[in-house]
Amino acid sequence: MRIDILTVLPELLDSFLSHSIIKRAADKGIATIRVHNIRDFATDRHRRVDDYAFSGDAGMVMMIEPVDRAIQHLKKEREYDEIIYLSPDGERFSQKMANRLSTFDNIILLCGHYKGIDHRVRDHLATMEISLGDYVLTGGELAAAVVTDCTVRLLPGAISDETSALTDSFQDNLLAPPVYTRPASYRGWEVPPVLLSGNEKKISEWKLEQSLERTRKLRPDLLEGQKEEE
Predict the structure, then answer these.
(1) In the chain, where does the domain assigned CATH 1.10.1270.20 lie?
(2) pLDDT at 173
(3) Where in the chain is the domain with CATH 3.40.1280.10?
């Protein structure tokens, strides 16, 4: 899988791409992640990528031309399954969406900045918009990092135990059950005996019960969403 990230502040992503699962996936050739500075596609000597809004509103707006030039440059080299603009008013990002993105070959993540982006980018260039939630970030770089991390970790071979990703919270509209490790007893706080029993059937039943209980208590909306899908 290849992910191309378009940003005006590429240095914000340096640390994220240089560590942990993302770096290992890149080293293994499982994922190719490239960060492109939109300023490299500006047409003036100041490498300007923003301008005032025609409406006279406060704040600067990302210009369409350098963004379009960047996207067209990438599209000359390969076809993209989605060109995704990261925006607070996009579709809410979810595990289900990450699962879908992980099946693609090539995607572009476009990071917004300033007051926003020339709306013609959204009308004519972006094919999808994603939001992390109902709040506004300074720029789309953090959102791009989240989408990249959630997606890449699902790729076969990205994590050492592939079944681990399949049991994460939200994969089946349930929160994950509690997990424990050694020691089995600490300061009088005990690990549930069933997890020490070795009985796989009982352990699986316990995990499902715990997932349902935690979801009902902490995120009942997930169970409601499951009913609607059915």
Answers:
(1) 167-229
(2) 84
(3) 2-152
- Cβ(32)–Cβ(3) under 8 Å? yes
- Provide the token pair at 122: 């959204």
Provide CATH code, domain 2-152.
Answer: 3.40.1280.10
Kindly state the tokens that stand for 98: 């990450």
Q: What is the rounded distance in angstroms from the CA atom of residue 53 to the CA atom of residue 130?
A: 23
> Rounded to the nearest 5 degrees, what angle is found at the Cα of 163, between the Cα atoms of 172 and 146?
65
DSSP state of 174: S
The rounded distance, in Å, linking the Cα atoms of 219 and 163 is: 24
Q: What is the pLDDT of residue 164?
A: 62
**Residue 177: helix, strand or coil by DSSP?**
coil
pLDDT tens-digit series, residues 108-118: 999 998 889 99
CB burial readout 6-33, b (16+ within 10 A) else e: bbbbbebbeebbeeebbebbbeeeebeb
Residue 72, SS3 per DSSP = helix
Task: Confirm or reject CATH 3.30.70.1110 for domain 167-229, answering yes or no.
Answer: no
Q: What is the CA radius of gyration of the chain?
A: 22
Residue with tokens 């970790």: 153
Q: How far apart are CA 112 and CA 170, in angstroms?
A: 27
How does pLDDT run across 91-104, given as a tens digit for each residue? 999 999 999 999 99
34 beta partners: 4
3-state SS assignment for residue 117: strand
Q: Which amino acid is at 79?
A: E
